Amino acid sequence: IIRVYHEPLYWGTERFGTLFVHRDITSEYEVDQMKSEFVSTVSHELRTPLASVLGFTELLLYKELKPERQRKYLSTIHQEAQRLTGLINDFLDLQRMESGKQNYVFQEVDLLPIVENVIELQNVNASLHRFEIVRQTDKSVVWGDPDKIRQVFTNMVGNAVKYSPNGGLVQIVYKQSGDSLVIELSDEGLGIPEDALSKLFSKFYRIDNSDRREIGGTGLGLAIVKEIMLAHQGEIAVASEYGRGSTFSLRFPLPRMQEPSHSLSDDSRA
Ligand code: ADP
Q1: What per-residue string of b and e applies to 226-239 under the rule 16 or more CB within 10 Å gives b?
Q2: Ligand 1 interacting residues, C-beta cut-off 6 A
Q3: What is the full DSSP assignment across 10-44?
Q4: 53 pLDDT above the threshold of 50
Q5: Which residues form the Histidine kinase domain (predicted)?
Q6: Distance from Cα 5 to the centre of ligand 1, integer Å
Q7: What ipTM goes with this model?
Q8: Separation in Å, CA 137 to CA 6, 97, 175
Q9: DSSP assignment letter at 205
């Protein structure tokens, strides 16, 4: 987007021309757009849980309720408060990452137990999906920050579950590609329309199609994953067939000198 300014040019009192300044304001425009997306996301995502916290606390305060009903309302209030905390934490995390203020504690990290644990937690949360881990390489150790890597897989597995039907298969494939470890997460879900692919990792971007309008979210999850992958000198990519499913690939550089003890050759989950 180009904005053009023009100024008359004078030599003394004599006008001898016009100065045209062409300024690329694409990024300013994008920032403005993001701000308005932020305002609408925040107003929706903050208001919805707050409205139910208010509604249910009023019921608890002013109505005679059976203990089991009280418990049900309290658990809704608890869930909604957790959702709010999640949104605020994601927002602050992303802010820190983008400004380079996020601290990373790098060490050798084995991805296998992290991924398994993320799946276990997903199942505890009553997910009805099937998970399959396929190891096409015995490599699984990268140089990274374990907490941040957990956040990557929590967001990725969470999305695979959120945007695919119950009973759907979520497959996680480990492969080596040159000096990198590549983890592919595939689901049998809604998929991603082609025009959305390039915007998917932008902050606050959500696909506003009728197939997913009811699914809650903030549009921050993939932006956070992208920032974490960049901090690990890695990459994230996506391929999708709309209506059939999506495959996200996470690429981590392999540590230069991998000790044999990290190859987990005694692991039987291949
Ligand atoms: P959120 O899930 O909070 O909206 P994300 O940044 O995690 O935000 O994802 C951005 C958008 O990308 C989502 O709104 C969703 O439409 C789409 N998306 C993400 N993961 C998947 C997936 N596995 N399948 C289909 N669509 C997805």
Answers
A1: bbbbebbebebebe
A2: 155, 159-160, 163, 187, 189-192, 200, 205-207, 212, 217-223, 246
A3: EETTEEEEEEEEEEE-HHHHHHHHHHHHHHHHHHH
A4: yes
A5: 41-256
A6: 40
A7: 0.99
A8: 61, 31, 5
A9: -
